[in-house]
Structure formats: structure tokens, C-alpha cells
Give the backbone structure.
Amino acid sequence: MTVMYESALQRYEPVFGLETHVELGTRTKMFCGCAAVFGAEPNSQVCPVCLGLPGSLPVVNRLAIEYTIKIGLALNCSIASWCRFARKNYFYPDMPKNFQISQYDEPLCTDGYLDVLVGGKTVRVGIERVHLEEDTGKSLHVGGATGRIQGAEYSLVDYNRAGIPLVEIVTKPVPDTGFLAPEIAKAYVSELRDVLRTLGVSDVRMEEGSLRCDVNTSLSVRGSGVWGTRTETKNVNSLRSVERAVRSEIERQAGVLDDGGRVIQETRHFHEDTGVTTSGRSKEEAQDYRYFPEPDLVPVAPPREWVEEVRAALPELPSARRARLVAAWSLTELEFEALRNAGALEVVEQTVARGASPADARKWWLGELARRANDSGVEVSELLITPAAVARVAELVASGSLNDRLAREVIEGVLEGEGTPDEVVAARGLAVVSDDSALLAAIDSAVADNPDVVARIRDGKVQAAGVLVGAVMKATRGKADAARVRELIVERLGV
Amino acid sequence: MDELITMSAAEMSAAMMAGEVSAAEVTAAHLDRIGSVDGRVRAFLHVAGDDALAQAREIDRRRAAGEPLGPLAGVPVAVKDLFTTVGMPTTCGSRILEGWYPPYESTITRRLREAGAVLIGKTNMDEFAMGSSTENSGYGPSHNPWDLTKVPGGSSGGSAAAVAAYEAPLALGSDTGGSIRQPASVCGIVGTKPTYGGSSRYGVVAFASSLDTPGPFGRTVLDTALLHEAMSGHDPMDSTSIDAPVPPVVEAARHGDVSGMRVGVVAEFSGDGYQPGVMARFTETVELLESLGAKVTEISCPHFKYALPAYYLIAPSEVSSNLARFDGMRYGLRAGTGSAEEVMARSRAAGFGAEVKRRIMLGTYALSSGYYDAYYGKAQQVRTLIIRDFDNAFGQVDVLVSPVTPTTAFPIGERADDPMAMYLADLCTIPTDLAGNSAIAVPCGLADEDGLPAGLHVMAPPLADDRLYRVAAAVEAAYLDRWGHPLLAEAKGLLA
């Protein structure tokens, strides 16, 4: 029986690890000149090499090597001065050669780490290796209940994907994370995705399969110090699924162990709809991949100078950016996380660059704009308003030309395509009424209409002035500067 | 015999340039020759016929139009059936590829077409180049033109037989363990295994990637050098191709000379299993080299005795992986129905012959987890030791010599059921393949016992292929002088 998460964690300590596959965004494939573009007509981006036709030979894509080195450097890895490709042999119809050119015991990058932030704390996830390989074709199994090859009537294979450069990033096992294991797993993938996006080496779209995760999970009986048998969960295709898959495996394995059972080393399949995993093929009767060095390729020996050039050209990485922004904007780690989780980091930074204060920029993007994005079901960064426009709105508020309510109207106008903030202010007539004579007339009416309030103010209850301010604001349809109105009322009543 | 087919390739191309003959006439004469003898020799799996004539007419048109012509203009070339060729099938001698027309051209045949050569047809071979007799062909054996009851050697036996039978002046082969030199030797012609990486493997269907070396056959040393030069050079489509100038092989073939050259006789290649007639011709030839001014010494290469076992681990290991793609899914034979896995298994069971299956099984075993270090890993270490033996030898001498193969052509059927006996045919040639350097086979007379050709094997360091031709041309010239005619003129029957 599956047991509840909290209960499981009382008796067991989870250990997890992640294998992440990333399709590189090179223009051409790993070993041939075919285009590596997503979504083309099936089998339209193929040639003798990526179809594995007899006699064809692979030639390494130099840019893919460079991208992999970039990833390795960003993940604090050592870059091998000499490494080789290896053949991983197994039969499957979506593999044109019935072997995959991959790396085995000589990966390009080894032994690094990635720091991830969870609940305001930094957790260091060790990186075992980063290696380069070719993707397989894509099978579509038709007929049959499961969409898998077993039971299908027939299968179609699209080799457009075959030979697209694929980087595999393998973490070291991550122990001692307790209850936070699922969350840390998710945060790792999220941070990794940010790193890869920042490096510009992949479009990292989980839904299109350009970033795919396998999650390894095992349980250790608390206090035993012995790690249990691990399972490998595949088909984990979103950040949320990473978290759910780890959690679900912890619960399932705890149930097996509680019942006196044995966790089997196997591949498990994650189901998005139910959030549980089911058994795939067992690794105990595992395939022997008969790895050996790829004889059709020469070793890869990136010169030190080249690696250093690549290192020098790395963009600012998310962790460095975090440190910089937290300091510059005086944020707590939690505030930073909120900003990043809202996907507003980029736009806020650009808004600040356009002159807004960090506090104002955060206020608008996390407040009004986040609400509007949420209402229309888009990311804040996808809203039809530029950081420059937001900075201008903040500027108008700071100078007293707009109050918050008017500013929200300006934003609405911009989002509805009415032009720049200044154009919206002009067209909608939204400027704060700053002409004292116009305000004094409205104050006179308010004083005349509310003799009892006036009496209370004169009796010393100055806070009652709010009623008069409200009346003036109503009369000016909100265009007055409330603070100025209060000053004028106090002056008029001589209190 | 028609002079148009007995001329050397060098003479053919000269006559063509001079306008004395047309490419179409030369090609037609060779097609006639194929028509009259190939029913008995069975060198060809595919004769290009009209396609070859069309290629020849195009050469003639270019010559008439005054367009530049390549060095092999109008010369017919027979192509081992593992080079991919557009417009001609490529079967690798296997039923699993029966009827496969490749959609792309190998680098080497493309270069030959550009050099003006006429690709006259595809030649028979041991299935996927595994064998030393062509008896492993899925389409029946080829026959040795010297004696039709004998094998022409292998695996490039069809190419060697075609050249020896005057069906083509030149032919392409590939050498993985001796598959050019051994058939050249037993057919009494010249054949070279160039330096590994000196000739492109792009479009050469793989047997063992780290060993496969395409190379030329010819009836004369100069012809062989002409083809060697035309087919060679760096190819960006082959990562293992060497980016260096082609050694000056034609120049060397024109100036055979061994005076002052240091020649090492490999001590290990003699004794039991070597046919006396073969050894007699070899010893005579070493004496000939000495008389021509070479300094001959004996050199020991102590690890060469491990070459054969190491080869039979490395080559099958690569085979087990290289041949995995033949599964009936995308091209070639598809046998039976059922699940994908069942169709793959049935297609492979039906399409591959016994020797190919044997090597796939050997290689699968050698690479399997737990055995890798003891077999594949150990064999690679042996390979390093063999390279060191060569390095050591070439520190003392300029070239090494040995017999090409321990015996002359053996009878068809004699070793067909004895793989070990068959494997011994490549005893002297395998070390060169493992080390990746270059070697040539050149005729050196007939064995007394059976009157069949024996060959001299000359080995040179990597990228010193020109040395081979310098030695071979000197031997060829000296024997021509001594005999008064080329060795092939002594062949009886078919060749008379």
C-alpha cells in the first residue's frame, strides 16, 4: 500500500538524482548537415548519415561541442582535455543504426555542481557528468491501448529528430534533503533550465521535448545509512511533474518497504493525469549495451585556450545575477524567489534600467500587472506593455502627475493598445487636477454640504477631514492629488 | 585477345587522349570481354552495360568539345560491391541488401567519375567482406582466371578476378585483413592497401571501421598507382580521413629503384604452413632485391603472432555493431511478419550467411559486459604492441617484406567448412591492417607445385605508400626483364 507522504518521511530518508536530456539549439544535427528544426514535415530533414544508411559516416558538429563545454563550465565542471564518443548498442526501430553514438566512460564534462535556492536556502546539487550524444527518431505507435509499441497495430517513425545533438546532464545522488526532496528536485530542473536558457544553447521547452527528465529515487531507512534500490522514472515532462514524480515514488516505495517488500530496480513511467508511476521494463534483466569507442570518429581534444575563450565569453549566470540583484535591490532571498517564480525578473530589471526604482518596478509587475496577466492566462512577460512604459508610469506617479488609481487606468489603456502612457494620459484626460483654484471650488462645496463634519473638525477631530477629501475626490472624479486636497482643507478651515 | 583490353590503363588513357581510340570503343570491348568470359569467372554481380557506355560517350563528348579530362579518362574500373553507387545496386555480396540502390555516391567512386573513369560494374565479394575466397558471397563464388577450379582469394576476389581476366584494367577493393593483397597475390596482379585514412571510407559499407581501407587493383604497378592517386586524398565526410597530401605514388611507380634501400625480412612469416613454392619465389625475390642494391636484413616482429587472434576479436566486435542496422526496417530484405523485434530477427536470420552470423556472435560476445576487458580491451593492447613492432622495425629499415599469403590459390570448397584454415590466408597481411600502415602485393612468380602465382608483400610506414611503389616497380621491371613477359602471360586456358 502506498503511504502518506508525511508518514513515509518519518521512517525513510529519500535520495534522488536526475538525468536531464537537453536538445541543443544548433542549426544542424550532431553528425550531419541536416536542419535541426522542431515541427517539420516528418522525414523531411534526413540524409544518408542521420538515416544510418550503409556506408555513411558521422562528422562531429563543432558548435555542439562548444555548447556542451559552455554547459559544463556553467555547471562548474572539469572539461576533459581528451575524450571519445562510444557506441551504445541496442535494437529499436527509431534508431537508424541500431546503436546510438553517445559517450560512456569518457564524458566531455565531469564533476561539477549547481546551487539551487529553495525556501530562501541554498542547496548544492552535485553534477556527475555532462555528455553529448545523438537523439533517436520519434515513434508513433498506432492502435493499441497504451500508445506504446506493445499491442500497437503499426508504428510510424519520424527520423527528423534522429541525430539532433542531445546533452545529458547527470546529477550525483542528492541525499539528506528530507521533506524538501520533491521541491529541491523541481528547483534544480528550474534552475538548470534558467542556466541553459541564459547560455542560449537550447530553447529548453519541456512540452516540445527539448528538455526531458528522468528521475531516480530511492529510500534509505532512517538512521541505517544504507541507500535503498533506486527506480528510474521516465516521461516526466514538466516542472510540476518532477516534484510529483519524486513524491509519488517516495510514497510508493515506502508502502512496498512497510509491507516487507523489496523495491525492484526498474524503469517506471510517470502518468501526468494520475500523478503516479507504473512499472516499465525491469533493469534487473537489463540490456547489455556493449559500449565500445566509436571507431568512425576521432577523439575530441578541445584545446585549453579554446575552453578558456568559451569560459571568458559566458554570459552572467542566474546565480551571479541573483547575488547582484539581491544586493542592488536590497531584497531578501524570498523576495527574489517570488520575483523569479513570477517570471518577472527580466521585465523588472529592464524597468529599473529605464529609470524606475526597484521597489516601484516590483510593485507594478508583481501587483497590477501580475493580476492582469493572471486574468488573461499569460505570463507577465507576455503582456503587451513594455518595461519602458511601466517605468514611465512609475515616473508619472512619483512626480505627482498621476495617483495610483489613475496609473492603473493608464496601464489599462496601454494594454488595450491606446498608445504610450503619455498618449493614454492625454487621450483619456487622466492627469491629476493640480490647479488649486479648481480644487478650492470643490472644497467650498464640500464644506457647505457637510456642516456637521466641519464642526467636528473644528472641535479637533482632524481625521474627520477624510470625509471632505473623499467628497472632493468624488467631485473631481479621482483626478485630484488627495494629499494636496487635505492640505487645502486644513488651510481653508484654519485648523 | 583484343588489344583494347590487354593494354594497360596508362596506355588506354594515353591512346584516348591522342584520339587513337574512343572511350566508347574501350568500354564496348570490355563489355564484350565480360560477356564472353564472366559466365565462367563470375567476377561481376552487376554489369553496368548501357550505363557504362553512356559514361564513356560522355567522356568522348567532353574530349571532342575540348573540355579538360581527368587522369583516368575513358578507363573502365570495376567496383567492389560495397561502394555505394548511384544508378547501380550495392549488395555487399549479401542477400540482405539484394536489390538495394543507394541514394548517394561514395566519395571514391565520385572522385573516379570526376577523373573520367567509366564504372563498368560491381564485383563479387565475400559477404560484407568477411572471407578470403569469395565463397561466402550470397551470390555464389567467383573463380580464379588462372584455374577456374580455384578461388580468386577474397574478400575482394571479384575485383581481382576481373582485372586478371582482362574484364577491366583497374578495380577497386577494400582491405580489412588482407582483402586486397591476398586476392591480388593469388590472381597474379598488383593490389595495394593504402595507409588507413588515406582513402575515404565515406560510402564504403563498413565491415570493421577501424581497419577498412579502400584500395586499388591493377595489372601493372603504374596502373595501380594511377588508381591509388585518383581515389585518395582527404575527405571531410570521413572523420578518420587524414588531412595530408597524397604520397607521390605515381611518381614512385615510374621510378622503381631499391638501391640503397633498407629492406627487412619479417622473421616470423615463414615455416610451418607456408607452401614451399611460395617460399621459394619469395626467397628468390629477396635475392633479386639484394642484387638490385637493397640492403636486406632480417627483422623480428615478436608480437605479429598475436595479430590473428587480436584481429578476430576487434573486427567481429565492430561487425556486431556495424551490421546491426540491417534489420529489415528501412531497406533491404524484410522477412516474415510479427512484432518489430520478430521481423528484425527473421530478416537477419534469412539475410545473413553463416560466416557473417559467426562474426556477429563472436563480436557480441567479446563486447559484452564482463568480457570486454578480457577480449576487446586485451586485443586493443595487442594492437598497440603490433604498432610498436612496426615502429621498431621502421626505425631500422625502410620497408618490410614477406610472402603475401602462405599458399597459392586453393581449390573452391577446400576450406569452406574450416574457418580456421580460411583465416590463416590472412596471416601475413593482418598486422598491417591492425597498425594502419600501407602495404602492396606484387607478383613474384609461379609456385613450382601448382604453377599458380605467388606474391611479394611489401609493407611501409603510414603515409609512406610511395615506398611500396618504388620497390614494386623495381621488382616488376626486373622480372619483366628476366621473364621477357608479364606474369599473366603465363596463364593458361581462359587467359590464353
Summary: The radius of gyration of chain B is 21 Å. Chain B touches chain A through 46 residues (CB under 8 Å).
